[in-house]
Amino acid sequence: MTGALAGLRVLDLTRLLPGPFCTLLLADFGADVVKVEDLGAGDYLRASAAAFASLNRGKRSLRVDLKRADGRAALLRLARAADVLVESFRPGVMERLGVGWPQLREACPRLIYCALSGYGQTGPLRDRAGHDLNYLARSGLLALSGEADGPPALAAGQIADLGGGALTAAFGIMAALREREASGRGQLVDVALADGALAWLTMPAATLLGEGVPQRRGAQRLGGGVVCYRPYRCADGWVALAALEPKFWAAFCAGAGCEELLERQLDAPGSPAHARLEALFLTRTRAEWEAFNGEHDCCLEPVLELAEALADEHLRSRGMVLDAALGSPVKLSRTPARVDGAAPAPGEHTDALLAEAGYDAAEIAALRAAGAVA
User: Fold this and answer.
1) Is the per-residue pLDDT at 324 higher than 80?
2) Options 3.10.450.320, 3.40.50.10540, 3.40.1710.10, 2.60.40.10; which CATH number does 9-199+326-370 get?
3) pTM reported for the whole predicted model
């Protein structure tokens, strides 16, 4: 079965999480993703074998020294036959090496060049280092997360890295490829993880910008600021109530015997309604509340530990849990993702890729001897 992105060649110069997750999405649907790694440690995530394997399945690896002229020439030759190049260095690094967007757009006019960085290719903070937590902090997302009387709450998933960065980059790449069908020209896709994190605040930002209503931690309707939409401790763990629409709230109140709370749906934590619900939830177990939801259809689910979620019948039926990794969340009816490829060893495909780029055996041997590739 041919993948939806079969025939697409992607050069992946990224490391760690955001870039490799972006190109994993492309590889799972048939793109030929080539990890371009240096002659040293390569992708730092190789130190974590399981994580590396899950993020780099189905890719090929080439090791090249971009500080050498012959190494840069090899990358340039590969780029001429590629559709997309993705990199995650600080802005200006690739340009100083002679293989950045200004150079490649002249040599490879059809190339889509995606630059992933913390704060983008422009702006006062373009050169600043950071990680997911920093981008969440500067975007305002961290300040709105958690209880009103507590510290900002960290999410277990990397919102800026994956949601703000990887997914945004994958969309940007596909949009640029679609436009190239009409224009025949490539372009720069500038993705800042901080920008992407801010975009996740579209509703609270609209409320502040459009209505002038201040937004505070613990007061967000979807951030635990109302009693109908927040986690509650039960007899043996936690459950999550999300009875946001009146019909779901009415179904919950009727089923749980607390009709007196029908008009208290949007009361805040710490209110008498909140205390009533806290006491109510402690009277049943997670399994009992899950069964309650099955009967009353009121948006109430158990809070599962990760091991429980990975064993969940529904998630497994959706193909989301494989032997040693997660499956693809994108389901296409005719050309589904293929998620069974192995991650490459460092430089495993160097010779094959150079041969595909037009180097003969003697030239490849010379590059190896010179230390330009490995």
Assistant:
1) yes
2) 3.40.50.10540
3) 0.95
